[in-house]
Structure formats: C-alpha cells, structure tokens
Amino acid sequence: MKCRKCGGAAVLELRRHNAAFCTPDFLEFFRNQIREAIRRWRMFGPDEHVLVAVSGGKDSLALWDVLLEEGYRTTGLYLDLGIFDYSVESRAKCERFAATRGVPLLVRPVADEVGAPVPVIQRVTRRPPCSGCGLSKRYLLNRVALEHGFPVVATGHNRDDEAATLFGSVLHWQTEALARQSPALASTHPKLVRRVKPLYRLSERETAAYAFLRRIDYIVEECPFAEGATSIAHKQILSRMEDASPGAKHNFLFGYLDRARAAFERAEAVELRECARCGQVTTGTLCAFCKLADQVKRAT
Amino acid sequence: MRVVLRNPRREVEVAGNRRVKDILRELDIVPETVLVIRGDDLITADQVVGDGDTIELRPVMSGGRGSRGGSTAEASDRTGGRGRACP
Asked: What is the ipTM, given to two decimal places?
C-alpha cells in the first residue's frame, strides 16, 4: 500500500478517506484535522492558556503532544481516581510525559475532593462505577480550571467517543444530552469554563496510531471498570457498521452536528444557578457533586 | 507465526505467510479496532506476515462513561452533564 501524498510505503490505511499514509504524511494529516477543529469551532486562540485534561491514555496525551507542537501554552490536569494499579500507572505516564517535555502538570486526587476513591464511591452509591467517576471528573475539571483562571479545558474525546455517545443518546432519546453534544461547549455562566474536544474529527485508531508513531508512552491497559460499560458495547456496534460501510461513523456524527443539533439546543435551554454549598453551577439547589460527597460521607 | 493480543495480554499461534487482513478475519477482529504492530512499525492490512514473525494487535478502543441519563436531577445537572467524562 502506498502513501496517497508521496507514494512511499504506507503505515496506516484510512478506509473512510479511501487513503493510506506514510508516517510523516499521517502525522501532518492528524495535525491538520486538529487545526481544522480548533478553527471551525473557535475553540481557543493562540494566546489562551489551555488546561488539558489527561488520563495517561492515547487520546489525551496525543492531544497534549499536538498542542505543544503547535506552540500553544498548556497545563495538564490529571485527576487521580484511585483505581488500584491502573491509576498508579496512568498517573506515572502523565508525570513522565510532562517531565520529559518540561511542561506543568496539576494532579488532584479525587478522594481528597469527594471523600473516597472511585472504587469506594461505586460501592457506596451502588451506581455503575463510571457514573460517580464521570460526575466527579466533570465537576473537578471545571472547578480546577476556575481556581487557576484557565479560560478553556480541552479533553481527548475523539470521533468514536462522540459517535458512541450520540448513539446512546439517540437510542434513549435523551434530548438534554443531545442538546449538549458538541465539540465545543461555550461558557454560558461565569462559573462554567469553556470545554472543547479538538480530537472530534479523528478516530480512536488514528489517535492510537499518532501516539504510537510519536513514541508516546501511554497506558494501553483498559480501566478495570470499563469492562461491560454500555459505551463500549455501542462502540463495538458502530465499529461493525464502519467495517461494513466506511464513513458511517463520520456521517452519523457530522450529520447530527451539521443538521440536527441546533433543533435540540433550542428545545433544551436550562436555567443555571449556583450550588448552595460549593457555589459551582447547577440546575438544582445542591449540585450533584455535593450530593455525591454527602452520600460518601454518610457511608464511610 | 505469533500474535500478541492485549487486555488481557495473551499470545496465539496462527499460520503465517498470509496478509494481515486474512489473519484478522481468522481471529474475528474488526480491522478498525486495532493497530497492527510488527517490531517498531505499523503495518497495513495488505502486508504479508512471515511464518517466523510476531505481530501485536493493539486495541484502540477506550471508554466507559459517566452517567448522563435523563432520569434524575443529578443527571440533568448542567455541570455534571456536559458529556461523557472518559477519556
């Protein structure tokens, strides 16, 4: 197989583009997709300091790598979930990445904020582990960004993540979730930091290839709690569809963003207020994070 | 030839001197879900793998996600509901 651009030996075939690339041309293709994402959604400007949420996985470290290569001013944020050896190893990957490149990394243990690590939160709440974990991460990303004055948080969500989320929302017609699904969420309240997903145009195979070709040391092992997660099942279904019909995921996600999202956004405008306890943004009197922390405190 | 699989890590022996795409088909692995690695290189689906070679099929799928379900007040919390939290 030959590189579409230079005719040299290809290392990666991208069936949805009916193309294959050699290493240098693939890396350039990858960066171009991120440049286009940032430009099209006005994610951030060259002078803005970006807080990059990193997990030690391929997506977030690939994103951080590209932003650094592009000359953006960035700080990493690692939220330590306390998930046994998985968290120990993923934290070490992030710390090594930051140290090697001489860039700042903030580390916040979730247990310090909620009162217990993710495995205990799961036991106490009796909800799926990803539930308390996700809630805590979203809350803390926003709060840490506010505390440090970052105007924007970038996460490593890729096209496959976004397509799987959309698939799940459509299956259950979760109109609130559909309204919020976007590569860029503007700050709609002084205490809500802008959140962006610069990898939304790239598949997870492409982010994995980028990380591999750039020799980024990322955690290949999956989170032990991810096994059996609904989103994984949705991804597997979508990958079968993509295999049968290359471009299916792209058409599904981009069709939604281009043609349907605006209708849901209009229908689901919500009133925002500040949590009576912590002051963070919520739609109720007490935010979901404070309720979770209460639940953990009562049980431990 | 030897094939290294991950999550959990294990190895299987399959017949070599075949194209990557044929090996993936035999193992019922969707090409979209893995990187195919030989030594320090990525290889494409049309490449032939020799009998004495070792390749790694590295999964690219990651996930798990936070609750966004619309049935509770927590789930509709604007701060707690701005999409999936992984990665």
From this structure: 0.89
